[in-house]
Amino acid sequence: MKDWNGICHRCAKKSMVHMTSIFDEDLICMKCQLAEANHTMQETAAREKQAAIRNGDLNFPGIGLPDDLIVYQDSVKPTEA
Ligand SMILES: [Zn+2]
Q1: Tell me, what's the pLDDT at 1?
Q2: pLDDT in tens, 14-70
Q3: Residue 11 half-sphere exposure toward CB, CA atoms < 13 A
Q4: How far is the CA of 66 from the centre of ligand 1 (A)?
Q5: Domain for residue 10, yes or no?
Q6: Which residues contact 75 (CB under 8 A, 6 or more apart)?
Q7: How far is CA 65 from CA 13, 38, 55, 56, in A?
Q8: Which residue of 18, 21, 59, 66 is 20 to 30 Å from 32, comparing CA positions?
Q9: Helix or strand holding residue 51 (H, E)
Q10: Roughly how many angstroms between the first and final C-alpha of the chain, as a whole number?
């Protein structure tokens, strides 16, 4: 698990709040979380994660990030506020 350092792991923008991705182990900002929540794979990801936890796999890494949620990680650098 990566640590939170004030920068969204996915979009590389500064954020005051963060949460864990349902798809992988990224710590992500509200905007990225919203994108996940609206994704068609979100239910599947949540179900798989819950099933893993039920089976005692507390380190389940997630089903993997859908291609269309992989955000501009190379093009967007952290911006100075
Ligand atoms: Zn983000």
Answers
A1: 61
A2: 999 999 999 999 999 999 999 999 999 999 999 999 999 999 999 999 999 998 888
A3: 17
A4: 15
A5: yes
A6: none
A7: 18, 14, 22, 22
A8: 59
A9: helix 42-54
A10: 27
Domain assignment present for residue 47? The answer is yes
- Domain-embedded: residue 75: no
Give dist(CA 50, CA 62) in Å, integer: 10
> Which residue reads 């994660």 in tokens?
49
The pTM (predicted TM-score) of the whole model is 0.79
The answer to whether residue 13 is domain-embedded is yes
Q: Containing domain of residue 18, as a range?
A: 1-57
* CA 16 to ligand 1 centroid distance, Å: 11
- What's at 16, amino acid-wise? M
**Measured in angstroms, how far is the CA atom of residue 9 from the centroid of ligand 1?**
7
